[in-house]
Write a structure and sequence with these properties.
Helix content is 27%, strand content 22%. By secondary structure, the protein is of the alpha/beta class. Keywords: Mitochondrion, Protein biosynthesis, Transferase, Transit peptide.
């Protein structure tokens, strides 16, 4: 293994240290009266079938692919799956905004910046890589709840960085889960659809993200085509096999040669090295590793 390095001058870095409709339980929780096709507690007509009114929550490239699929479905007037599509994203220091905002603006979709979610009426919410815990009050505004497109086979890798941890830990199989969001905790809701794919050998997290984003977008459209039935057939996540994928800290990129094997270092590079450069210490100087060959 050959290493390309760059010396970083200045202070030492961090390397030192059922029934084709929402269940009665869900409808009661949501304060919905009557049956689908009737009116809910706010006098809003609850639809039994498409086209749906969708509010999308997302930020990054993975989420952008799901939004692209929703927008394509909205533009497809023959199928009539999506009638309305609005977008919620988070503020960004970049003038262009995050990928989801960029796509929404280019596609002339209404955009709100969290915590503003507008005042429109929607049938269902969709979340992909949003990174914000949604309140129970917000979830209950949607007759069919809020769906989450999550790039792992839940309950493995709950949390904000599932793709990175998939690569970092050398998983050979991964996938995408479409689940229904519950309040107060991330990634614990019932599974509506789940598909697995092999992790390509030597795949970087960015490369794997591309594969999973396309899979997730297709799965999302499939669920929306049969939404009431999909919700009625949702299954609870197993209690075995739960793992967590926390955000990557700055210290994660620091190589510790005495503690890590060459395979672990290569996996670390494939997981985050194309996002942020790895670092190590050499004679009390911080060294930035530009590439591992």
């Amino acid at each position: 293994m050959r290493v390309l390095v760059r010396r970083c001058w200045g202070p030492r870095s961090v390397c030192g240290g059922p029934g084709g409709r929402p269940s009665p339980q869900w409808r009661a929780l949501a304060g919905l009266g009557g049956s689908p096709g009737g009116e809910d507690g706010r006098g809003v007509r609850v639809r039994e079938k498409p086209p749906w009114r969708v509010l999308f929550f997302g930020t990054d490239q993975f989420a952008r692919e799901a939004l692209r699929a929703l927008h394509a479905a909205r533009e497809n007037k023959e199928e009539e799956l999506i009638e309305k599509l609005d977008v919620v994203t988070v503020p960004s220091p970049s003038p262009k905004g995050l990928p989801v905002k960029q796509y929404a603006v280019q596609s002339h979709l209404p955009v709100y910046e969290w915590p503003d979610v507008g005042s429109g009426e929607y049938d269902v919410g969709v979340v992909a890589s949003f990174g914000r815990l949604l309140s129970e009050a917000l979830i209950l505004k949607f007759p069919y709840g809020i769906l989450n497109v999550h790039p792992s086979c839940l309950p493995r890798w709950r949390g904000p960085a599932p793709i990175i941890h998939t690569v970092l830990h050398g998983d050979t199989v991964t996938g995408v889960t479409i689940m229904q969001i519950k309040p107060k905790r991330f990634d614990v809701g019932p599974i509506l659809k789940q598909e697995t794919v092999p992790v390509p050998p030597k795949s970087t997290a960015k490369e794997l993200e591309t594969v999973l984003s396309r899979l997730g977008a297709n799965m999302l459209i499939s669920v929306l085509k049969n939404l009431p039935e999909s919700l009625s057939k949702g299954r609870q996540q197993p209690t075995e096999g739960v793992t967590y994928a926390p955000k990557i800290s700055a210290g994660t990129r620091c190589i510790k040669w005495e503690e890590q094997t060459s395979e672990q270092i290569l996996r670390l590079y494939r997981a985050i090295g194309t996002i942020i450069p790895l670092q190590t210490l050499w004679m009390d100087n911080t060294i930035k590793l530009l590439d591992l060959i």
